[in-house]
Design goal:
Layout: H1 11-42, E1 45-60, E2 73-75, E3 77-88, E4 93-109, E5 112-130, E6 140-161, E7 164-171, E8 179-192, E9 197-207, E10 228-242
Antiparallel strand pairs: 1-3, 1-10, 2-4, 3-4, 4-5, 5-6, 6-7, 6-8, 8-9, 9-10
């Protein structure tokens, strides 16, 4: 059998190649852990910001399937941004506080199509744990309680009303509960970009509070009153700076 490119294999060459690969892995591992140690010595406190988008879901009753549409409600994409501070107790475990603004959006369908957007001030207290694997990307998981304060909610209604096309926006803040308690669970990567630490996060926020408290004059949300909660899947990138 002819070996491509006239490469000849032998037992000695195979052993030499394996030994070289092992040495390379060991040296790479040593460099990675040395870098970790250096970073930890410099600072255990990190501050920064994260920004991205979420896909919101309004859940009814005991529904647990995020990707299931409930009561004719559809999901929408909305932005969010946070500032954060994290203190690492050890190389592997830290505590993180996030403060920011999050918009959640969903659409109901009926005679009219109505898209709701809740604008929330959000606070998250997270336990941040580094996954013990060898990687320059420092994979992490985190979990903790989350609080939303609904500062302003508006709806945009489009469709046909009494035979006329309609497109109007209205303030429906009072339709939604002002407080929403939930929990955040997620995972992320972080790695050094010389001047800062680049962060990439993916998370799920599960809301426990009943978000729709009254229908008012918006008939589309009648089936959701006192039985609907809002959850979302979010994706964010950000930068952290050691102090």
């Amino acid at each position: 059998m002819k070996v491509p490119f006239n490469i000849e294999f032998s037992l000695k060459r195979s052993i030499r190649a394996i030994a070289t690969a092992v040495c390379a892995v060991i040296l790479t591992s040593g460099a990675a852990f040395a870098q970790d140690g250096a970073g930890e010595t410099e600072s255990k406190l990190m501050v920064g910001f994260k920004s991205g988008f979420n896909i919101s879901d309004i859940r009814v009753g005991s529904d647990t399937d995020y990707f299931q549409n409930n009561e004719g409600a559809g999901k929408n994409i909305a932005p969010q941004i946070h500032v954060f501070g994290r203190f690492d107790f050890t190389k592997w475990v830290g505590a993180e506080l996030e403060l920011g603004w999050t918009q959640n959006a969903f659409t109901t369908f009926g005679n009219k199509t109505t898209t709701y957007r809740t604008n929330n001030f959000q606070a998250n207290a997270l336990l941040n744990v580094r996954i013990p694997v060898l990687s320059v990307y420092h994979p992490r998981i985190y979990i903790g309680p989350s609080y939303n304060y609904n500062a302003y909610t508006y709806s945009r209604e489009t469709g046909t009303l009494y035979g006329f096309n309609t497109d109007q926006t209205r303030d429906v803040t009072s339709t939604f509960a002002p407080h929403d308690l939930g929990v955040v669970v997620g995972t992320g990567l972080q790695f050094d970009v010389k001047f800062a630490t680049l962060l990439v996060d993916a998370r799920y926020r599960h809301g426990f509070s009943k978000s729709v408290r009254r229908a008012g004059n918006v008939t589309n949300v009648v089936p959701l009153v006192r039985q609907a909660s809002i959850s979302d899947v979010a994706f964010m990138v950000g930068l952290g700076f050691g102090i």
